[in-house]
Structures are given as structure tokens and as C-alpha cells.
Amino acid sequence: MNSQEAEIIDQYDVMFAMRTGVTILIPKLRAFDCGVEVPVQFTISPENPRDVLITAAGQAAILKDLRKDYLDEAVERGIIMFYELKDDEVVRCTPCNYLR
Fold first, then answer.
1. Pairing with 5, which of 15, 28, 40, 51 sits 20 to 30 Å away (CA)?
2. Distance between CA atoms of residues 89 and 47, nearest Å
3. Which backbone phi and psi does 70 adopt, to 5 degrees?
4. Of 81, 82, 74, which Cα lies nearest the Cα of 100?
5. 45: Cβ–Cβ under 8 A, 6 or more apart, which residues?
């Protein structure tokens, strides 16, 4: 993945609950326009261990500087749930699975 082509996500909010895990609120993201039939996956950046690399259907995004405890929890559970917002309204939720 070429990081110059990837959407950069540096404005986001994180919610964490023991039962539901890591949920991240972000603005609407082009990388998630792939439809529900295409898996969305994440890995940890080899360049920065707090950056999350997200891929789906040839699209890419980088979630910058996620707190280590949230990242560890997401990797352990194998999933991050993304809620995309437009004008403070949730417009889409996308599960993103850890690519082992």
C-alpha cells in the first residue's frame, strides 16, 4: 500500500467498552465505499506501531496515532468497528477485521 494514496484519518473519537470493544467515530471515508460484500481489514503499520492501516477493495486509509491500549485491545479482539459521521449523524457502520 502506498501511503501517499491512502486517506489519512487524524481526526476521530474512540469509544471503548468491555462488551463491545473499540469503536471509532470518523468522517465519511472513501475507503469504505466498497459495499458490505467486501471485507475491510486492518494491520499495524510497520513504520509507526500506533498507526492502523486499513484496506478494502484496493482502497486504503491510515488511522494515525491510536492509543496503544486501544490498539492492543483491537488486535486481541480481532476487530474495530468504524462509525462514519456526516453532520454529526451516523451514516454507515463498518466492521474492520484484523489481518493476521
1. 15
2. 33
3. -65, -45
4. 74
5. 51, 52, 53, 62
